[in-house]
């Protein structure tokens, strides 16, 4: 979309279907070039000056239509499309897709196996909490995980609400084998801020890089 016009994704925005398809085609070219198998299909914001209740049905219809188009296109490239709920309490009051429950319902209606849930635990905690049950419930739909401490959105070992060693072990027990994206703003130096990862590996009996000492 057009960031200067206040757009942040187009997949659920009525009347912007052609622009969504153009953007998707460009994203596929970039993804193919760098060997990236997953693309985040951003839902977008409720149009300015519009009440969500008045356009919710039309936006869901547009979202489903665009997601089906995207899924069929991505299937030809052996790629996966991701949808991410973004909290509307702190981060973006106008964003259309806000909870994993809403995302799961839309994915069920779309009915394409190569569309998955991009679950950012920062947004999920702010909107719903109950992370253990939500991870267990939506695990079959999850295609990517992102993390940040709540409420500061800094490193996972910074002061906050979430116990990330517990969450990481839960993901392991559930059989998650995908990437965990560090979707946080470092409090200071980026490399120093990655010390939490070294500490976590060591607590699990692993060396730097995740290789077993054994």
Automatic annotation (TrEMBL):
Residues 8-199 form the Xylose isomerase-like TIM barrel domain. InterPro entries: Sugar_Epim/Isomerase, Xyl_isomerase-like_sf, Xyl_isomerase-like_TIM-brl. GO terms for biological process: glyoxylate metabolic process. GO terms for molecular function: hydroxypyruvate isomerase activity. Keywords: Isomerase. It holds the Pfam family AP_endonuc_2. PANTHER family: HYDROXYPYRUVATE ISOMERASE-RELATED, ISOMERASE. This is HYI isomerase. It comes from Ciccaba nigrolineata. The gene is Hyi.
């Amino acid at each position: 979309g057009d960031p200067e016009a206040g757009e942040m994704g187009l997949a659920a925005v009525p009347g912007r279907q052609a622009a969504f398809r153009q953007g998707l085609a460009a994203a596929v070219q970039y993804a193919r070039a760098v060997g990236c198998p997953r693309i985040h299909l951003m839902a977008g914001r409720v149009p300015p000056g519009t009440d969500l209740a008045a356009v919710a049905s039309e936006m869901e219809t547009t979202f489903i239509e665009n997601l089906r188009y995207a899924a069929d296109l991505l299937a030809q490239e052996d790629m996966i499309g991701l949808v991410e709920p973004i909290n509307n309490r702190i981060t973006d009051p106008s964003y259309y897709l806000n909870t994993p429950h809403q995302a799961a319902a839309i994915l069920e209606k779309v009915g394409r196996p190569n569309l998955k849930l991009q679950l950012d635990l920062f947004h999920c905690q702010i909107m719903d909490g109950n992370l253990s049950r939500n991870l267990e419930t939506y695990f079959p739909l999850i295609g990517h995980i992102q993390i940040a401490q709540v409420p500061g959105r800094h490193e996972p070992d910074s002061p906050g609400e979430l116990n990330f060693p517990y969450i990481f072990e839960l993901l392991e027990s559930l059989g998650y084998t995908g990437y965990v994206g560090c979707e946080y703003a470092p409090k200071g130096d980026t490399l120093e801020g990655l010390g939490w990862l070294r500490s976590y590996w060591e607590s699990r009996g692993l060396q730097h890089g995740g290789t077993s000492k054994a």
